[in-house]
Design a protein that fits this description.
This protein is an alpha/beta fold. It is 38% helix and 18% strand. The chain folds into four domains: 155 residues, Trna Endonuclease, Chain: A, domain 1; 219 residues, P-loop containing nucleotide triphosphate hydrolases (Rossmann fold, 3-Layer(aba) Sandwich), CATH 3.40.50.300; 245 residues, 3-Layer(aba) Sandwich (Rossmann fold), CATH 3.40.50; 37 residues, no CATH class.
Length: 719
């Protein structure tokens, strides 16, 4: 079977004919067909290969595609593609023996619109169409295919940018620094599914879903760079919610573009831009601001949006108002890529859609559980609305052979080990939380679509994944590679620490960080300290930073001591301290989470607070320390002991649809005004009940109509 990875190309008709041929006609071959990939950097600039076939039987077949009937220059084209690809492959020792390349290369011109190609074909310069291509392929032979796996690895190694930011100098073979180096080397290459997500390009909307650590940000960055390399004339925008991701995106895109093309990106045509934006140009630009400016409609900054639309509704209100005020939006971009889409209101995704040219190349990536506002992202049909005839403007088609995927799920986690990820999910969902009276369950949230558990890499080991049934879910070996946890004992991968006071917590963290630097061969940029409550971060991290400074260890508060677009301070040896919002999208070998007790229980938005803890835990690509004070921390530790006792599997009763609705209501997010109103009503109700029981108020005082309505509500609740 041929796996077809269909990228963008300037020869769409012949490329699709080739994909259809291998999807429907070619038999007896097993391997990969890449269309529009790779791109080879040369002295003359980037050189895209039209298509590439890799199989054990044929070796490497290089397709030069003819769009239409014009076959002039086919010999020169075959020579160019052969020479450039051979030069690229010779740079890899795994494919060489002495001075000889161990992979046969077979160039061919594919001209599907030509009825007769026999007169064009020569022994050294073959030309094929659908009628003779299969026969020609069977004449391509690889006498010693023992290098096939190495060849696949070279072609699929889209980039080496997953390796560490700096060269790691370690002296002790079993130090944390040495273990981290081995981890980084092991995950340096993208897997095949991530590679497909980078290359495959949809004419329309594409969605990429995946867990924390599955590579969504890297995939988006490489995808943007790939599209830019293929179409340098396109206007491409990359946007995101966490400002500290801007530097990361710029570095990734710059590195990949140079790797593939030997040239730096044209930053006028590929823009890494904020979602909101403001007047002033340059780094202040943003998608929403540009939409307002381009279409001549009123722009709201944060302050004016808060006054107009209310607290926690600022960006949603501003985006929706812009859409309502613009009947004929101008097209600005050829492609827009959105990271962290779960943190954006649907109206913002709609603005991005409206700013695109007719092909509507929009790619958005998200992880449902990293939504810190706990508002679920609607389906694409809901987000993008309907046509005049009532049909959805966007609808994802089922996956078809020879067609790029519209809905990509990255189920393999390359950051978190199985124990760390399962713990994060258990605490994030409240799997082992003590049941409360309001819901009769410990759960604080759950996926509405139960099959999503399977899609993100869990398997059912006991029970049934259905409402009202007991189920046990476990990470698979494929989705959670063993090497992520084999380097250290479980009790070292993840630890909980209970303290009596903030001072005791601060002292412990400072001593642990000093040991990391002194004994563990970790670098300062291997360490991140996260406070889940963004409003108390400066106050909570201050004592720890003071203790470190006394010992000559530099630190910075991300976005405060640095530019808002900077997370790790590359210019100095400095420990990163951060609130949860700036931590998103970033990762570190050692993660310390302060004041975890703040995430145990809240009167409002419990799902959102649990998501903060989930997001903080999943920043770790090595070890995580979860720290806290008091009863809330004791309860979290009790939940963790249940996770361990179940061997880091998730065992619970899956809620019914009615129970899920109830969970969403009880644990919903609320504005400050809504919270005050609910608290007041609860206090008023409690006082009324006390007065009724004490005889200070009689039921008759409430009036017949109020009593009737109260009985109806209570009967409905009981029913």
């Amino acid at each position: 079977m041929i796996t077809i990875i269909q990228g963008t190309t300037k020869k769409p008709v012949s490329a699709q004919r080739l994909a259809d041929f291998f999807a429907n006609h070619a038999t007896g071959f097993d391997g990969f067909l890449y269309i529009g990939y790779p791109i080879i950097g040369t002295a003359e600039g980037p050189y895209p290969i039209d298509a590439l076939l890799l199989t054990r039987d044929t070796g490497l077949v290089i397709f030069n595609l003819v769009e239409g009937l014009d076959t002039t220059g086919i010999q020169e084209s075959q020579d160019d593609s052969y020479n450039k690809l051979e030069s690229k492959l010779r740079a890899h020792k795994a494919l060489m023996k002495g001075r000889s390349l161990q992979v046969p290369l077979f160039p061919v011109t594919y001209a599907p619109a030509k009825d007769d190609v026999t007169s064009l074909s020569e022994d050294d310069y073959p030309v094929c169409n659908d009628a003779n291509l299969e026969e020609w392929l069977h004449n391509c032979e690889w006498d010693d295919p023992s290098h096939f796996e190495a060849l696949v690895a070279v072609i699929q190694a889209i980039s080496t940018i997953r390796k560490g930011r700096k060269k790691r100098d370690v002296q002790k073979a079993d130090s944390r620094g040495a273990k981290l180096k081995r981890l980084e080397d092991s995950i340096a290459n993208l897997d095949n599914l991530q590679g497909r997500a980078v290359i495959e390009t949809v004419e329309g909307v594409q969605r990429i879903r995946g867990l924390a650590g599955s590579g969504k940000t890297i995939v988006l960055a490489l995808k943007a760079a790939y599209l830019h390399a293929q179409h340098p004339e396109w206007k491409i925008a990359v946007t995101f919610n966490t400002r500290s991701l801007k530097g990361q995106f710029r570095q990734l895109i710059n590195t990949f573009t140079i790797e593939q093309t030997n040239e730096e990106p044209d930053w006028d045509n590929i823009q890494i831009t904020h979602a909101w934006g403001a007047p002033g140009g340059g780094d202040r630009n943003g998608i929403y601001y540009n939409f307002c400016q381009t279409n001549g409609i009123e722009y709201y900054d944060f302050g004016s949006a808060k006054r107009k639309f209310g607290q926690d509704k600022e960006f949603e209100g501003a985006c929706q108002k812009a859409l309502d005020d613009c009947s004929m939006p101008s097209s600005t971009y050829d492609a827009i890529l959105i990271d962290e889409a779960q943190d954006f209101p649907p109206a913002f995704l709609r603005i991005c859609y409206e700013m695109l040219k007719p092909e509507k190349r929009l790619v958005y990536a998200y992880d449902e559980l990293q939504n810190l506002s706990s508002q679920s992202l609607p389906s694409p049909e809901e987000i993008f609305g309907k046509n005049q005839d009532g049909t959805p403007r966007v609808r994802f088609a089922p996956s078809q052979p020879g067609k790029p995927q519209q809905d990509v799920i990255l189920k393999k986690c390359y950051r978190n080990s199985r124990p760390v990820l399962a713990t994060a999910h258990a605490l994030g969902f409240g799997i082992y939380r003590t049941p409360d009276e309001a819901t009769g369950s410990g759960l604080v949230q759950i996926f509405d679509n139960n099959q999503l558990w399977i899609e993100v890499g869990y398997e059912v080991t006991e029970g049934e994944l259905a409402g009202g049934h007991e189920v046990t879910l476990a990470r698979t070996h494929d989705s959670s590679p063993a090497f992520l946890e084999d380097h250290s004992p479980v009790d070292d991968l993840i630890q909980f620490q209970l303290f009596n006071s903030s001072e005791e917590q601060a002292q412990w963290v400072s001593e642990a960080i000093k040991a990391n630097l002194r004994d563990d061969e970790l670098r300062p940029d291997d360490i991140v300290v996260i406070n889940p409550n963004p409003f108390s971060t400066r106050k909570e991290v201050g004592p720890i930073r003071k203790l470190l400074f006394t010992d000559g260890i530099n630190s910075h508060l991300a976005g405060v001591d640095t530019s808002p677009d900077v997370f790790f301070d590359a210019d100095s040896e400095s420990i990163t301290f951060t609130g949860i919002y700036r931590a998103k999208g970033n990762e570190a070998g050692m993660v310390y989470i302060l004041n975890a007790q703040d995430c145990w229980h809240q009167f409002w938005n419990m799902a959102g607070f649990r998501n903060r803890l989930f997001t903080a835990i999943t920043r770790s690509k090595g070890w995580v320390r979860i720290l806290g004070i008091g009863k809330g921390m004791e309860e979290l530790m009790r939940e963790f002991e249940q996770v361990k006792a179940n061997n880091f599997n998730l065992h619970f009763q899956y809620p019914t649809e009615e129970q899920r609705k109830h969970l969403n209501i009880v644990n919903r997010d609320m504005t400050e005004d809504e919270r005050r109103r609910v608290r007041k009503k609860k206090d008023d109700l409690a006082q009324l009940l006390d007065d009724l029981e004490a005889g200070r108020v009689y039921p008759e005082d409430l009036g017949a109509d109020q009593l009737k309505r109260l009985r109806a509500l209570l009967n409905k609740e009981v029913g």
